[in-house]
């Protein structure tokens, strides 16, 4: 196992390619659930060849796009005792790690909600480790970190291509970890409204209803 495999094996996701038929609104889905594990290269090549063949074979009436279903390894819950000071301390550490690695836009991490700090911290650690393995010049830019439809969204780009694929996978893993994870406490939760959609535990939902 290479050093890269050791890093990427910590961020496995169930991912799919989905093709959407515009006239009939039909879907065709191709799922792969073993993204990171030996032998990596053969599966990578086979999956990419299959998705490329699908894109080539289907007419222009079909639109293909990649989706993430779920994270296979979920991080532990957040610490029981949290406050504003611990949140800002944890995000400051992440920002410092990213800046030291040369990542642009590192301050975007400060917007991550407290219930999602553990998966974000694990992702940051993985991104920094992956950058350290890169030979030659590279660039990683965090464009935006936000909340959308109750979960975390990370817009990040990188160069060159091999680094970009791995960084994207780590970011997608962090996003998938926030599905069903309370944005405040890190406990199990569900997406609730009205207003701004957030994933909240029953306790946090009651608190929100009392003090929006």
Explain the overall architecture:
The structure is a single chain. The chain is α+β, with helices and mostly antiparallel strands. It folds into two domains: 3-71, no CATH class; 84-202, no CATH class. 40% of the residues lie in helices and 24% in strands. The strands form three sheets. Strands 2-1-3 form a three-stranded antiparallel β-sheet. Strand 6 (190-192) and strand 7 form a beta hairpin. The chain starts with a helix and ends with a helix. The mean pLDDT is 86.
Share of helical residues:
25-40%
Span of the ends, CA to CA: 50 Å
For the biggest β-sheet, the strand order reads 2-1-3
Name the structural class: alpha+beta
Q: How many H/I helices?
A: 6
Oligomeric state: single chain
Shape from CA axes? globular
Q: Total strand count, please?
A: 7
Summarize the structure.
With 212 residues, the chain is α+β, with helices and mostly antiparallel strands. Helices cover 40% and strands 24% of the residues. The chain folds into 2 domains: 3-71, no CATH class; 84-202, no CATH class.
Task: Provide key terms for this protein.
212 residues; alpha+beta; three-stranded antiparallel beta sheet; 6 helices; globular
What topology does this entry show?
Layout: H1 3-8, E1 13-21, E2 26-32, H2 40-57, E3 62-71, H3 84-100, H4 117-133, E4 139-148, E5 151-159, H5 161-177, E6 190-192, E7 198-200, H6 202-210
Antiparallel strand pairs: 1-2, 1-3, 4-5, 6-7
Helix pairs in contact: 3-4, 4-5
